[in-house]
Amino acid sequence: MKKATIGFAMCGSFCTFSKAFEQMQRLADSGYELIPVMSEHASSTDTRFGRAEDMIRRAEQIGGRPVLRTITQTEPIGPRGMCDLLVVAPCTGNTLSKLCNGVTDTAVTMAVKSHLRVLKPVLLCVSTNDALGASAQNIGKLLNTKNIFFVPLRQDDPVNKPNSLSADFDMLEKCVSDALQRTQTQPVFL
After folding, report:
1. Number of domains comprising the chain
2. What is the pLDDT of residues 71-128, one digit of tens each?
3. Which residues of 24-40 are buried (b: 16+ CB within 10 A; e: fewer)?
4. Fewer CB within a 10 Å sphere, N or C end of the chain?
5. Dihedral sign, Cα of residue 80, residue 83, residue 84, residue 87
6. Is 103 inside any structural domain?
7. Cβ contacts of 137-142, under 8 Å, gap ≥ 24
């Protein structure tokens, strides 16, 4: 039996890209069809964590198709029924804020908007240093938004970064299964 098609969208939390790629590969190995999406910054910024062209190449290798990197490329995701589930991993505080406030100015935010408009589930795999600060209100609002689900979160360094939360990337595959069934994996906060 064919598994679901998952849009796998990546934002600019570059330090978590290796975890995201590991989970993307696990989903592909489990038989999910993947559509890779990257925000404009994620697909064009070289950082100490790697070169943009290498990140694009890796996403395309795992997904088996070109990365969608523009608003015009991701707009058809919903109307054409391209995905059963859209995963945003990593999801930055910036993207959380935009989703919470209806801002559609990147390939990732357009992918989410397009997917939600046909009432399909979105799974957010948050990684942000201000999750318990400025982004806390956005997480709270999105927890109460229909068809938005979260990979469970925990403080990643409570002593040195007390406002920082990161999703437990190792739980992503289980959360994908739950979100496809419209169920929030519990507990939300670890």
Report:
1. 1
2. 999 999 999 999 999 999 999 999 999 999 999 999 999 999 999 999 999 999 999 8
3. bebbbeeebbbbbbbbe
4. N
5. negative
6. yes
7. 137/100, 138/93, 138/96, 138/97, 138/99, 138/100, 139/96, 141/100, 142/96, 142/99, 142/100
R_g (Cα) of the chain, nearest Å: 15
Helix ranges (H only) for 117-151 are: 136-143
- Summarised one tens digit per residue, pLDDT across range 35-66 is 999 998 888 777 788 888 988 999 999 999 99
**Tell me, what's the pLDDT at 2?**
65
Q: Is the pTM of this model over 0.70?
A: yes
Answer yes or no: is 190 within a domain. Answer: no
CA distance 151 to 135: 16
In this structure, is residue 186 part of a structural domain? no
CATH number assigned to the domain comprising residue 54: 3.40.50.1950
